[in-house]
Structures are given as C-alpha cells and as structure tokens.
Write a structure and sequence with these properties.
GO terms for molecular function: transmembrane transporter activity. One of its GO terms (cellular component) is plasma membrane. It comes from Bacillus timonensis. Its main location: membrane. Helices cover 75% and strands 1% of the residues. Helix 3 packs across helix 15, helix 10 crosses helix 11 and helix 10 packs antiparallel against helix 20. The chain is globular. The chain has 22 helices and two strands. It has a two-stranded antiparallel sheet.
Length: 519
C-alpha cells in the first residue's frame, strides 16, 4: 500500500506521509475559495462542540487529571518504562525537554497578555468589582488554564506511549497502535489509517494556530528592536530562521533536541531574571503566591464551572466556554504528538517518576512564566502605568499591548531582544520534537532505539513551516483553521480516552500475570 523500504530496513508508509498533507491542502483550498460558506459551517460546528458539548471537555479534563494522579501512586506507579538501569536523560535535560516541547512560544505570548483579558472580564457578574477581586481573578485563572489538568492531557498518554514502546515493544509508533488493545486488528485497517490521518491533520491545523498566535508578537519585537519595518517579508524571514534551527536540531536527533532545549531554558531564565531584577519583585512574588493559593482553594470549582446562567440570559458571561473549554480543546489537539515525545524521552523512568516529574517540570516552567511575566503586566495595570485591559477592549492588538508593557522596563531594548531569542528558541525546541514524532508516524516499523531517516525528518520540518507561511497571506483562512483544530479536539478526546483505556487494560493484564509479554 505505497510502502518503500530504506537502506536501514525501515518501511515508509506513504499513505500517512502524503495523505495528511494532501488533505490539509484540500481543506485550505476550500476555505480559501469559499470563505463565507466555510466560515458559517465551521462556526456552526464550533457552536455545537464548544458551546453545547462544553461540559464534556470539563468532565473529561478533570477525569484525566484524577486518573493520572491515581496511576502515579497506584501499584502500577513502580512499573519501569524500558529495561535501562538508569534513565536515558538526566533530570535537568529531561525536564527541559518536557517544558520546551509544549506549546512553543505560546507560553511566552499568553503569560504576557492573558491576565489582561481576565482583568476586564468580570465573569461572575459582580457589581463594581474591587481592584483586589480583579487582581485575584487575573492572577489565578492563567495558572489554572496552564496548570495540572492540561498537563495531564500530555502526561497520562505519555506513559501509555512509553509503555507501548519500551515494555510492549510495539514496532508501530502511531495513535492507532496505542488503541490496539481496544480496536484489535482494525488498527491495521481502514479505521487505524483514518485515526492516524485525522490526527496528523488536526496537528497540522494546531501548529498553524500556534504560529498565528505568537508570530505577530515575534515580528513586532524584531521590528521594534532592530528598527526594521514590520511586513509579511519580515515574518517569513523569521519563520524560515526558526525552521532552519529546528531542522538542524531534528536531523541531529534526540541529542540535538536536548541541547536546544537547554539553550531555550537558559534564555528563558535570563529573561525571568531581567523582570525580577528590574521589575516590582515583591508584587510579582506576592501576587504569584496569592494566585497559587486561590488556584488550590478553588481548583474543583474552576474545573466544573460551566456558567449555566449564560443560557437563560440572566447575566452569565460565557467565560468558561470562551476560555477554559477553548484551552482544554487546544491542549487536546496537541496530544497527537507531544505525549509521544515525552514518552520516548522517559525511557528508564518509572510511571510514577514520569508523571510526578512531568508535572513538576511542566508546572515549574509554566507557573514561573505566568507568575513573573503576567504579574509584571498586572502591576503596570493596577498602578496606572499601562491600561492593558482597556487597550485590548478598544481594539489594540495584543502584540502592541505587550510592547507597551515591555517599555516599562528600564532596559526594554535588552528585554525585547531576549524575548525574540526566547520565542525563536521555544518555537524551534517545540517543533523539532513534533517533527521527530510525526516522522515516526511515516514508518511502518520502528525499533525502540531507532530514529526516522533524516530525509523524512527534513520533509516534515518543511511541511510544518510551509503551511504557516502560506496562511500569512490569508488571515480569514487562518482563523478558520484555528477553529478546525478546536473542533477536531472533540473526536481526539475520544481517541485519547481509548488510548488511556487500552493502556490500563494492558498494564492490568500484564502486571496481574506477573508478565510484560509482548502483543
């Protein structure tokens, strides 16, 4: 079925290599040629999956988080992923790759601006909310949206994939293979191919979303720092530079990815230090501690709040649909690849070490980013220096608002330069991980210690960058693809559920008989 064998004996499956690319081209073409009709159809689907089925995402998210915690501390927690005497990567390298393989520069982008949306939201309909109430809400909800529940969407499937690869010794490293214990031999047929093609298409749309969110900020940052006029040409040059960096890293393999992740963390820590040294350190720390406390205190109410009053028009805001459901869907859309990467680099660790360590590395990274960058901006808002919330409400672009916030630093030029470097490093570190994983989808069989051939990795590296460049010239199409990635999260959540169920079924059977026999 369109298979080619390379010199190392690996078989390339051209259905999964070319099929998703052709499908995304067809979708993009339809969106481009029929923007109005496509827009209505996609918004209708969004209103159903996000507006009507929002409770599904909320219940599913809380459920995945609780299962991940139970699994880590259950009798299965001591099961080791593979036979190595010690983990393949040391703790710092492993933690750095986990943090930097997630959401690319979106972490920096949202930590700088998300609080400003919440500051002016007043979702609970409080009459004349106090400044303290606005501050508490704006400092705690970003931590929730980038906290334990979304990280569980990656870590629970990650141990499932790690178990599949290193314990079960499965030769096919795809989503359909992870479902084998539930769907049986259909993983090799049309159903399996459909799952994998659909998943890769959803991932391609999701990466377009990632680039679309943060690239305007990166372009404006470079423009402001170097005094270069902002244009599509500048944006394309930046994307090409990012592509070159992560293509080089991914051709080197996991060693190259590990080194890039360390560089990324180093730049990130330097930028954090600049904000703490030259910013309102006491305010940042105290707001961070308060935000964490509020998150812990209100965690379950945040996890289940659906704002039912919005349905009857009695003052509800629709905040959880616009933000929490959006985020859960967005994180789910990325589960196609990121957990595979986390599972692959976790060889030699136990399930408990992978889940607990993954939560530690992930939350340490995202919480630090949102506490320091977010609360620096919140200080400017609450002390009358930059009305970021008001600027957004009056139509200013998020990138313009972020630049205004940076200008409050005494060394704003240096900080903007570090921001540009950090965003490029985050982009590259995330996409080299994605490229490696999706390249593995293209292989019919892959041994646990093998990596895909370089030309397949380069092929996917180019695909990941060509689509965003093409979409720069059509903003309407880009917005629609973002919505498609969110809508796609609904069936992907079902697939994630099957993956988790299949894994629990396998590990229960294997440990119950005292064996880790191969399928």
């Amino acid at each position: 079925m369109g298979l080619q064998k390379n010199k190392k004996g690996q078989e390339i499956d051209w259905v999964l290599t070319i099929g998703p690319l052709l499908l995304i081209i067809v979708i993009s073409t339809v969106l481009f040629l029929f923007p109005n009709q496509s827009g209505h159809a996609i918004e209708f689907l969004r209103s159903i999956f996000v507006g009507e089925f929002g409770s599904f995402y909320m219940i599913f998210g809380l459920g995945v988080f609780l299962v991940s915690i139970w699994l880590a501390f259950s009798r299965f927690g001591n099961v080791k992923l593979g036979n190595l005497e010690k983990p393949r990567f040391n703790t710092f390298s492993w933690g750095a790759m986990i943090f930097t393989s997630t959401m690319a520069a979106d972490i920096l982008y949202w930590s700088l601006i998300e609080w400003a949306y919440y500051f002016g939201a007043n979702p609970f309909g409080i009459e004349n909310p106090s400044l303290a109430q606005k501050q508490d809400f704006a400092s705690s909800y970003p931590l929730f949206h980038w906290g334990p529940i979304p990280w569980s969407f990656y870590l629970l499937p990650a141990v499932a994939y790690g178990y599949m690869i290193f314990v079960k010794n499965r030769k096919r490293q795809t989503l359909s293979e992870a479902c084998r214990s539930t769907i049986g031999s259909r993983a090799d047929g049309v159903l399996g191919k459909a799952i994998d093609i659909f998943s890769i298409v959803g991932l391609l749309a999701g990466t377009a979303t990632t680039f679309s969110l943060a690239t305007p900020l990166l372009s404006l940052t470079v423009s402001s720092t170097l005094g270069i006029p902002q244009s599509n040409v500048l944006t394309i040059i930046i994307l090409v530079i990012i592509a070159l960096v992560y293509t080089v890293a991914v051709t080197v393999g996991l060693k190259g990815i590990s080194q890039l992740a360390k560089i990324c963390v180093g730049i990130f820590i330097t930028l954090i230090a600049v904000f703490l040294i030259f910013g309102p350190t006491k305010f940042i720390i105290e707001s961070g501690v308060t935000g964490i406390g509020k998150l812990i205190n209100d965690f379950f109410s945040m996890s289940t709040w659906m704002d039912p009053l919005r349905v009857s028009g009695e003052g509800g805001s629709g905040f959880p649909q616009d933000w929490t459901v959006f985020y859960w869907a967005y994180w789910i859309a990325w589960f196609v690849a990121t957990p595979f990467f986390i599972g692959k680099i976790s060889e030699g660790r136990t399930i408990k070490q992978t889940i607990v360590g993954g939560f530690t590395a992930g939350l340490l990274g995202t919480f630090t980013s949102f506490i320091v960058f977010g609360n620096f901006g919140l200080y400017q808002q609450t002390h009358g220096k930059v009305d970021a919330s008001g600027m957004l409400a009056s139509g200013a672009s998020p990138s313009e608002v972020i630049i205004q916030i940076f200008n409050q630093l005494p060394i704003s030029g240096v900080a903007l330069g570090l921001l540009a470097l950090a965003m490029i490093a985050f982009y590259a570190s995330t996409f080299d991980a994605l490229t490696l994983v999706v390249s593995e989808y293209s292989l019919k069989k892959l041994e646990a210690g093998q990596e895909p051939p370089k030309y397949i990795r380069v092929f996917w590296a180019l695909i990941f960058i060509i689509l965003p460049i093409a979409l720069i010239f059509n903003e309407t199409t880009l917005t629609m693809l973002q919505t498609i990635s969110i809508v796609a999260a609904f069936p992907l959540a079902i697939i994630m559920g099957i993956v988790i169920y299949s894994f629990l079924k396998d590990i229960s059977r294997d440990t119950g008989t005292g064996s880790s026999s191969q399928d």
